[in-house]
Design brief:
CATH superfamily: Phosphoglycerate mutase-like
CATH architecture: 3-Layer(aba) Sandwich
Strand content: 15-25%
GO molecular function, one term: hydrolase activity
InterPro entries: His_Pase_superF_clade-1, His_PPase_superfam, PGM_Phosphatase
EC number: 3.1.3.-
Organism: Oceanobacillus aidingensis
CATH class: Alpha Beta
Keywords: Hydrolase
Structural class: alpha/beta
Shape: globular
Largest sheet: 6 strands, mixed
Number of helices: 5
Length: 207
């Protein structure tokens, strides 16, 4: 494995229409489609020089981003449910107003790994375990290639935590905040240390 390039899905309808995130399945906006094309253009030179494979969450906003990026790079998209955002259970498809009124009560004020925000949804511990297991599986399968991954803000943050070998309890005090269309680059150095070369680069969206 040469590098892992993480791409947060681009601007989505749920950013505009007061819908919740999580497993709510919304498409990209026209602006988001333009962002995805710019990401593909940015990565062309890298992909031309490296053997690459492209994975994506199967939720529409991530898959559409990956599909546009893949068309620019001439890469097929491999959909992977394990790369989805946190499972929002009964809140999927609901508005942000509904989620505020219907989330489960919190037992403590600080971040709680075992808090299940919505019925049938994941706890943060379960989410981290699912993302970590998914990344282990992908890296084992694609160990000779650079891996491009299109996912979601929460998923991307937990991929970073997995890369830095965080124990679950370590994410209680750490959060990686990224933005739509941001690109993050991970690699290993000569000491086999896991390196974050670039985090949430959005310079390609500025032209």
């Amino acid at each position: 494995m040469s590098n892992i390039i993480l791409i947060q899905h681009c601007h989505s309808e749920h950013h505009l229409n007061n819908m919740s995130g999580g497993w709510t399945d919304t498409p990209l906006t026209e602006a988001g489609k333009g962002q995805a094309k710019k990401i593909g253009e940015k990565l062309k030179e890298f992909v031309e020089k490296n053997a690459c494979v492209l994975y994506s969450s199967d939720l529409l906003r991530a898959f559409q981003t990956a599909d546009i990026v893949g068309a620019e790079l001439k890469l097929d998209v491999i959909q992977e449910k394990g790369l989805r955002e946190i499972n929002s259970g009964v809140a999927a498809g609901k508005t942000k107003d509904w989620t505020r009124a219907n989330r489960n009560p919190r037992a403590k004020s600080e971040f709680d790994l075992d808090y299940r925000e919505f019925q049938s949804g994941e706890t943060w511990r379960e989410f981290y375990s699912r993302v970590s297991n998914c990344m282990d599986r992908i890296c084992e399968l694609e160990n000779e290639k650079s891996i491009l991954i299109v996912s979601h803000g929460g998923t991307l943050g937990y991929i970073l935590a997995w890369w830095l070998k965080f124990e679950p309890e370590m994410i209680v005090n750490a959060y990686f905040s990224s933005s739509a269309g941001g690109v993050t680059v991970l690699s290993q150095n000569s000491f086999q240390q896991n390196v974050v070369n670039k985090f949430n680069d959005t310079s390609h969206l500025e032209y």
